[in-house]
Amino acid sequence: MSGAPSEIAVAPSAPARIIILGATSAIAEAAARLWAARGARLLLAGRNEARLNEIASDLKTRGAAEAIDWPLDCAGADASIELGKMVDRLGGLDILLLAYGVLGDQAELERDPAAAAKFIVTNFSSAAAWCLAAASVLEQQRAGTLLVIGSVAGDRGRRSNFIYGATKGGLAHLVEGIAHKLAPLGARAVIIKPGFVDTPMTAAIVNKGALWAKPEAIAASVVRAGEKGGPEVYAPTFWRGIMLIIRNLPSAIFNKINI
Ligand SMILES: NC(=O)c1ccc[n+]([C@@H]2O[C@H](COP(=O)([O-])OP(=O)(O)OC[C@H]3O[C@@H](n4cnc5c(N)ncnc54)[C@H](OP(=O)(O)O)[C@@H]3O)[C@@H](O)[C@H]2O)c1
Q: Using a 6 Å cutoff on CB, does residue 170 contact ligand 1?
């Protein structure tokens, strides 16, 4: 067949428009690198302006079509207004990754109600406001994905970190409900539950054993969750089995374990 094209031309798909809240987090940065390599357009929100700037420059060298630094205290912002500005800047939203969070010191938070209240605003109330704002955008678009980094600590309250765990457990329920609401519309929400991850958040923990993961491994789960799966992803996946056991341990046994 002379003159017939040997290849069918395929229109390149538009770069994914991705917003990252807490873009200076080690896990978020590793995920951003994976997205940059795919030519995404990234909007990076965080409160450390100098680090954001460095990360944005690095992501451009790694292939990002765009990397916009967006200095912001995510816990203090009006999520709905700020998200509107971000989405306008990108011209839509394909993925929002909520990564920011603080670990806190359980003993100190138990002693200081004001510190506990502030902690809960950072890890839960402000995050919930962002999730609701994002859900509203995705609902209108009838497309796109909300990714939220929770924690296995949210699966069962433990004496060593139940305030942190409560914030992450609350987020998990919220995201699960948003996922349920968005599913019939063609949009998605996923709560990603890492176990122990070697990042600045856990730098003070000295004995890191076999259960510890690198941020790059969690980032791979985050990026996969942006494509399919959910509404709940354990990272690494073996934590699903561990948490199944922990959640189902009878209190008589659980109360004797110092975790
Ligand atoms: N590391 C773990 O073992 C582990 C396990 C399970 C879940 N997680 C969760 O994973 C997420 C990422 O943590 P990570 O391990 O990557 O630790 P990380 O590198 O310490 O990241 C936490 C990030 O949150 C940012 N942040 C805190 N408050 C903020 C605010 N008000 N506005 C904007 N950014 C704020 C911090 O920015 P600054 O530099 O400005 O403080 C920091 O970049 C967190 O939600 C964490 O709870 C971590």
A: no
